[in-house]
Amino acid sequence: MDIKSKSSHKWGVLIIILAVLGAAAATVKLYPYMTNKARDYEAYRTSRIKEKIRDYSDLSTQVMNFSYVIWHQQKQEEAGRIMTYSETYLPGLDEKLRELQRTKQAQQLQGEPAAAGNETGKTGDGNDSDYSSYAEELGSGPYDVDYYNDLRNQMNKAGNDWENYYRRYSSNLFYRVVGANGETLRSNVNRPDECFGKPLSDKEREFVFTVQFSSSGSMKVTDFKGDDSDWFTFLQAMNRYEFYDPLVSRTDESYPYSGVRFLGPRNMTVQFRCFPDKVTNQALNMDGKAGMDYQSYIDSSYYPVIGSICFFLLVLALALPAVKRFEIGRSALCRLSFEPLSCMGAVWMAIMGSGGLPASMIAGTMDGRLGEELLKAGLLPVSAKAMAVLINILFWSVVYGFFYWGITCYRAIFSLGFWRYCKERTWLGRFLCFSQRWLVKMFNVFDETDWESRSTRMIGKAVIANFMILTLISCLWFWGIGALIIYSVVLFFLIQKYWGQMQEKYNRLLEGINSMAEGNLDIEIDEDLGVFNSFKKQLARIQTGFKKAVAQEVKSEHTKSELITNVSHDLKTPLTAIITYVNLLKQEHITDEERAAYIQVLDQKAMRLKVLIEDLFEVSKASCGTVSLHPENVDIISLLKQVRFELADKIEESGIEFRFHLPEERVILYLDSQKTYRIFENLMVNIIKYGMPGTRAYVQVFRDQEGSVVISMRNVSAEELKVSPEELSERFVRGDASRNTEGSGLGLAIARGFVEAQEGSMDIEVEDDLFRVVIRWKEKRKEPEFQEFEKWADEERMEDEGSKEEPVRAETEQEKDTINLRTVTEYKPLD
């Protein structure tokens, strides 16, 4: 990522931060609006509740609660003792429990298993035996001591709840129990006759009604006094309790068949007087107006406001990554896997969806509770107010930040595509892909086998994998047979599939081999041949070898053709001259001077023919490696100077100025002096023949870093070199394509052959018209002979220095070089 893209990314991140902070600030700014909406909702809710009061469901419930408590008090007076609600409303339950205990003890004494069910017989009322028998016929199971104890506890708990309601509503719900003659048996007011005899109130709604319980336990409402429009609604609410058993809603489905029945009030008449609005308001814990809490925010404006802001962030999170220069959503933070991201999203949805925590934050801020807590912490009023705003902004920044980040992560579903997202960004997808690769690798083990390595490891993996699968199948017991069948079918189709693929790859390889056998060496096999990939590689090597062999054969045939042409041309020229001058010599009337001139020409042409044939023999020996060498310690510096001396006339005639950069000390190499002389001679003659007159040629000898002696010769060619450096060292190749210059075209070929025969290397470099030859030899010599040679040279030098006679001086530099070369080449080791 370059500097510009990094800067763009920073701008994108800044836009996101500002958007989240702006959304948080907008939410806090909308707190007053949300509060007003919550108040409006509470006002509406209060009016609806007041309308709902007219259904009288709460009043009817409290009437029945009073009736149950009144009947329980009456039964205690009749019994003359304190009774539990289970004794009042579940008669016979205690007797049944005692009988079950006696039966259990008797069976334990006799060694028999204790009976857990109900015994037949009459306990309680006369219907107990019928209920028990019916329960056993339905197969509901036995009812043990624990079941009846739990039933008794449920009944006593219900009675306690009735008593609590009785005490709570006694100040608003008045009653009196009326006897058979109209007398008052009990009441929760001091003067019941006066209370129930006065007329109804004109200011508030007031009811007076009578509830009668028959001998069978049914309930009905009579003598209703109040607004006639409320009579039908109140009657509907009371009709729910006509035949009502409170234990049905507190127990399970087995209760009706347990042999124990709830017996409610009977043969009892109760007259009630109340203000229904007060009873209902008290039930709702209200005093005429609603108290506003966090639920009011949730039910009014919370979801629209938060939903609108989240929708804005949703659009921004989906649209902003589309601006590629921002590079949003490409960091590792936005590549979280689907499963942990969904878990965090579920937590976020639970918090924000329920609305309890954020709505409590809003309510606490608007009613001042948050500020009060901050004041208690010791903050100043101004600081507390600012801190409360800051806390709210931070809270909503975190909420919206998580929302924006989650949407950015989920956006990859659209950018990557559904299937790629499943494979790359879900744990399940990764596991399935891993399982797929593992199964494919397991069943494709032979297709990817290196047949040149040992097969023990591969076979071991296959056997272990199959063992693990069969082990898992065997753990299924009987169902393992079905799993084994499925495994066998799947294995059959997989083997059939891969067998078919191997057949296709084998046929493709066979087609390639047949095509090569028919002479098509350019065929390419690009397909993955699996197990046959090694064969494909070997086939490619064979194909390359065949191509090289064919190319070499074509080149050899071309060389042979050129060899015949060039040899014919080069031998034909002197041979034609020889024949011509022989015919001239056969003439009768030629003078002695003409005969001498003809013989001289014949001698020159014959020598030329001899040189060509010798060169041909030399290059043939060099190419076949049959050159006979006579190596000895040779000073190549002196050898180069001798070549320069021998070619001095030709160098002067060529017009090329030779510059020699030779070291002053000797450079001794273990070489064949004659072959080395021929190398230098051929190279310098090549410069003389094909160099541009008036230019300079450079001959240099030095040692490189690898310890080799380097002989470099470079010059400027007279003609444009259209031949590659590789072709110049071939046989019968000349710098001039017209072959007008004197020579056989074997000079460079002979030089290369002699250099390589002496374990050296010769490189030819051509750059435009610049021609350069570089010869390298490892510096080595035969030490014993060299040491004797050095000893002899030192003695000769000492004798020359001690001699009183004038040393013989060479007249020219060329003569001096000849003496030095003769000293090197004619030296024989001492015995």
TrEMBL record:
PROSITE patterns: HIS_KIN. InterPro entries: HATPase_C_sf, HATPase_dom, His_kinase_dom, HisK_dim/P_dom, HisK_dim/P_sf, HssS/ArlS-like. Signal peptide: none annotated. The keyword Protein transport does not apply. Its main location: membrane. Keywords: ATP-binding, Cell membrane, Kinase, Membrane, Nucleotide-binding, Phosphoprotein, Transferase, Transmembrane, Transmembrane helix, Two-component regulatory system. GO terms for cellular component: plasma membrane. The chain crosses the membrane at residues 302-323, 344-366, 386-407, 466-495. Residues 793-819 have a biased composition (Basic and acidic residues). Residues 566-781 form the Histidine kinase domain. It is found in: Cell membrane. Its EC number is 2.7.13.3. It catalyses: ATP + protein L-histidine = ADP + protein N-phospho-L-histidine. It comes from the Bacteria. PANTHER family: SENSOR HISTIDINE KINASE CPXA (PTHR45528). This is histidine kinase. The lineage of its organism: Bacteria, Bacillati, Bacillota, Clostridia, Eubacteriales.
